[in-house]
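CORE FACILITY INTAKE
Project code: CF-77B
Contact: R.S. (postdoc)
Sample description: multi-component assembly, two entities in total
Requested service: structural model of the whole complex
Turnaround: standard
Below are the sequence entries exactly as provided by the requester. Do not edit them.
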Amino acid sequence: MTLSEAEKTFILHGVQENFRIDGRNRDDYRPMELETSIITHAFGSARLRLANTDVVVTVKVEIDVPFPDRPLEGKMEFFIDCSANATPDFEGRGGESLATEISNTLTAAYSSNSVFDYTKLCILKGRKCWKIYVDILILECGGNLYDAISIAVKAALWNTSIPLVKSVTIDGNNVDMNVSENLSDCIKLDISAAPLMVTLCKIGDHCVVDPTSAEEQCSQGAIVVAISKGKFSTVLQTGGGSLHPLTLIEKLKLGAKVGNRLEEALSETLSKVKEDGEMGFLN
Amino acid sequence: MSKKELISKVGLRLDGRRADELRRIRCKLGVFSEPDGSAYIEQGLTKVLAAVYGPHQVRSNRLKAQADAVIINCQFSMAVFSTSERKKRPRGDRKSTELSLHLRQALIAAIEVEKYPWSQIDVYVEVLHADGGTINVIFFKFNRIIDLFRYFPACVNAATLALIDAGIPIKEYVCACTASIANDNQPMVDISHEEEILGGPTLTIVALPMCEKVVLMEMSQRFHLDHLKLVLEKALEGCKNTKNILDQAVQNHIIDVGASTGWAGTGEKVKR
């Protein structure tokens, strides 16, 4: 979809008046739908639909060897798959650059131990740990991918249950683990500090949150901030265009405010999740 | 191979179906709004999403544009989390490319290609959930050989629905189904993963069920020539049944869409 100059001007004027094309304010989100446990093959999963944007996130865990310099910590890897279903531009290897950009940002946002406790994933110091694979599948792009992905990742991690290791025995170089047979015995991850990302898209003199794909086309650049408990875990400036330092600080403050609001909304939603009920793409 | 009976004495299969029963098919058209057409289908435990873009200008390689027919571009891909063991990459391996080609062949037979010269239609299918249980591990090596092809029928059916949702003229539904033979002479339809692992050969066909033409046929292992006819007939019957289910879904979808627009002001009322 490409916009004409007149359409762009229309959007720009709307943002100036704090009345966007779909009637929202500058700091409003579009409606979201969140589902958890939709993929039975995975240890945890979530699907988020933010208006036209649709992402599925699954979590799988495997046993791995910790990094030599961090023997007490587990690992986490993000993999993004831009499905061609989202847009024909993603066909073949077309989505790879976007996927790398998003996965690097996520890795940066989740890199600190104060954001996500990696020591919980350690099984045996220096020998065995859990490795979490977070696989993100983008099914439809309607703008604001970063926010949607970060919410879905957090929900999927919330949904994850890691098998309980009851005991570990060491026999020379062999490490034997006794994993609990009981399916209800499992560890839940602590995601209270997991970051949420907020995209602030600069259109004209103002910034909007949750841009649609049309608004993204009018923007002169965007800042993505990852907020974890009111603090920034990563900041990324994308797109062309430049910002004045003062504007930048102002936008970061706005980002933190919106991030906290989003955080509250998500934890409230997660506390209300029902385990049963019809789910998936049929509804 | 295990000698476990695929059809018991009372005529029931491992999952409780009879020989001529399909697994449950549930589907929905128009799941997404960005693509021109999209569909979601569940066949047993296999879950597939399909999206159709087009007809539009030839995008990738202008030289490929044809004066007398539309170009059909297909891509098969499987989410990394779709199988119980995490996949390394979603597409681009040999088997996925092969399936893309097969899918294209199947769809060309159904689409009225001469309607859109100098244009292109993109069909993308994404397997979200693959049928397969714990037996995977035991027969892992054997499993590799047949691996992806058993998701093919669901992909063809999903692509058909997405084409219909996109409003692209097709000659008729193109449906796919599998069939096999059990206890030496009893043909059975729509083979589940478990049966494929335990049992013998599997025949996959893509057919135009109304005119009873076979578009594509794929076979694993071997059949006796006498059995082939039986199995083929069974698979065709399966395609016809699948077509009826898809047709019902399309009709329901049209009623939903039509009713919400007030039948474009014609005032007509249709009851389900």
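Facility notes:
- Residues 133-146 of chain B have pLDDT under 50 and may be disordered.
- Chain B touches chain A at residues 26-28, 31-35, 38, 40, 42, 47, 49-51, 53, 59, 73, 75, 77, 79-84, 86, 90-92, 122, 124, 126, 128-130 (CB under 8 Å).
Invoice: internal transfer
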